[in-house]
Amino acid sequence: MYAQEKVADEPLVLLAYNCKIVGESSQGEAVDEAMDSHALDMYKILMEADKLRLDILKCMIDILTPLQAVELLVALKKLPLCLHEWSKRRDIQMGITKLLNTQISSTSGPPEPEP
To answer: Which superkingdom, per the lineage (predicted)?
Structure first.
């Protein structure tokens, strides 16, 4: 278990274990304090991860030619958009959207007709 997980998880697990009824909390202040601590730890981890990603990107751009750097930035922007579109189409093909009872519009074309 990572130190970050241990710091946040132990108090939350103990508080959850002591609850007799789901949703009941006689220790509201302790829960709030544990959640605040957990949120702060998560924020710090995310900030460190973002800094690391930015540092790596800067190093990569320094190595590449200007044209290669532009192509990399375009590809980095395009990849999550393409994955999102692909996953929406896949969900529709597998019928998952019907299970979730959601209407997902796609920017890649009109929605598929219902059978």
So the answer is: Eukaryota
